[in-house]
Each structure stands twice: as structure tokens, then as C-alpha cells.
Amino acid sequence: MNALVKVIAAVATGFLFAGTVGAQTLPGSGKTIRYAQDDSLGGNYVVAQITSQALKKLGYDVRLSTMDTTLFFQAVAQGDMDLATDVTLPQREPGFRAIAQQAAVVGDGMIIGGGINGYLVDRKTALAHNITSLEQMKDPKIAGLFGRDGKAEMISCDPAWSCGVVVDYQLDKFGLKQTVSPVRGKYEALMADVITKVQNGKPAFYYAWSPSWMTNALKPGTDVVWLPTPQDALPPNIPNRGTALVNGVVGCAGGANPCRMAMGSWNYDTVANKAFLAANPAVKALIEQIRFPLATWSEWEGVISKDGGSVSVVKKLSDAWIASNQSQFDQWVATASKAH
């Protein structure tokens, strides 16, 4: 009996020891990650939840905060935040350059193939007046359809967002400042008014991007059309990732293919503090693997545009993705856990 007791005790001790070692060998054991998400709601919030769950599997405690990218850049440079996975590049390139000594871009972006952005008008007005390019807004008669006194009101970006700089630059470069007035304010509220206008058959003119909830609420080719720009044109401090001519854009006015957008492809990139990355190779290895196809982003954005972006909706989407892609999720974690 004594021998049996000794064997059982030895086995029990072994299990306890193995469990302790297992916990201790998790790369994030005892560490907290300060994770930021941008204040622009979308599928990026779903990605933040999926990524947070993977980080927790690596043993990290994750503290998620919401803040504007400009504030995040300051915080990550000072070491007050560790990373964000939804920094829009190249739009945010000027701000990133200012902190490039303290922070780095990790991975190839969260959207496989990248996204697009540009100018849209309601399809009804475009067809009625044969509007097939942004350049036609030089004509006060055309511009006046979207405003009054021969000048269009175009919904631009939130004042804190970098896309507004691009819009202002292009309106000047394309000779549209006399006939187009950009409206900047809280984008979500401004777009709610745009959606109502289009649904009621009234003219609407705005700047947007895809994937996003806006291009699900108002579908290019059905409700609205993209207006091709006359030429590639970006502020000198914002690099263009290739030509702004994009093939296969659904809903490009006049059926143009390729369709010249406001810029080349953009992406949700990950920016992290360099010292944090050096101390946490598992995080770097994890982020380098995480990417999602455009169809997945569109699905998320569609649900958010329909059901809203509450915590419960976002969590339901992230949990559903993990459940449907468990083997891929587990592989990400397993690969990251081996990083040194």
C-alpha cells in the first residue's frame, strides 16, 4: 500500500510540476499588453477582439483602449501604449514618420489585398445627369445639384482623421475649390444624414472607403457610384502605394475599369513600440500571421452597418470567426509561442 501511495504521490507531483512549468513557459505569463483601437468603428474592432483572444492564449493580460491615432502615436512613442492593429497607412504615414525611431510597422496589414477609398455620389443623380467623373464637379450646374448656388457640399472626414488632408489637397489640385465645399465633422453623424438622403432619393456627395460600414449601408453600383479622379495626386508627405488606378472596382461611375480612386490601396497596419517588440517576440510573430480576406471584412462591416457596433455585436462577430476558424487561430498561437 505504501508503495502505491508513493507512486500516486509521485504522479500527482509530476502533473502539478508540469502544469506549473506550462504556465511559466507561456511567453506572456505575468505581462500586460496596452492595446489601442482607433475611434473609427468598423471591422477593425472585430480584429482587435480576435487578436486580444490570441494574445490571452499566449498568456498575456490585455488592456484595450479606444483613442484617436494621433494620440496613439504620442502614447506609443512615449512607451505608454504598446500597439495598435488599425493604423491606416499610407494615410497616417506623416504621423508615423515622426515616431519611427520609437515604433515600427509589423506585418503586411490586416486586409489581404488592401482597401480602396474615394468619392461617391448617389446613383440616381449620377445616371440622371451623366456624372461619370469627379472632374465634372467643376461645372457649377453639376456641383449645384449637391448643394446650392452652384457649389456642392461634400461630406469629408472627421476633423481628427488624416483623410481630410488628402481631400483638401485633391480639391485644390483638381481645381474644385470654387465649386466643392468639404464638410468636416463627426463622420458617423454626417453619414447618417447621407444615408437618409439617398434612401429618400435625394442627391448626396461624400468621401468614403472600403471595406467599411458605409459601403455596406450604401452599396456601390446599387445605391451610389464611385467617381474616378482625373489623376493621381497626394500630398508630398503621403506616399502612394502604387497607382490609384484599381481594377475591378464595383460601382465605378460609367463602368470605368480600371477606376482611378483617391489613392492606391490602403491597409490597417500594426504599429508597435520597438522596445516592446524586442521584449515580446511572440507578439511580433503573432501579428505577422494575422490577416483577413476582403470578403470577411465586408461581412463584418455589413453586420455592423445593420446591427450597430456595440460591444456585444463585435464580440459575437469575433467569437463566431474564431469558432469557424479554430484550427487557423490555434496555429497562429502555436507558431507565435515558439518565437524567440
Count up the helices: 14
Strand content: 15-25%
Strand/helix succession: HEHEHEHEEHHEEHEHEHEEEEHHHHH
> And the CATH topology of the largest domain?
D-Maltodextrin-Binding Protein, domain 2
Mean pLDDT: 92
User: Care to count the β-strands?
Assistant: 13
> How many angstroms does the end-to-end distance come to?
47 Å
Provide the low-confidence segments as ranges.
Answer: 1-23
What's the CATH class label of the largest domain? Alpha Beta
The helix/strand class is alpha/beta
- What is the topology, as strand order, of the major beta sheet? 2-1-3-13-4
- Largest pleated sheet: 5 strands, mixed
Shape category: elongated
Number of self-contained structural domains? 2
Q: Which percent bin holds the helix content? A: 40-55%
CATH superfamily assignment of the largest domain?
Periplasmic binding protein-like II
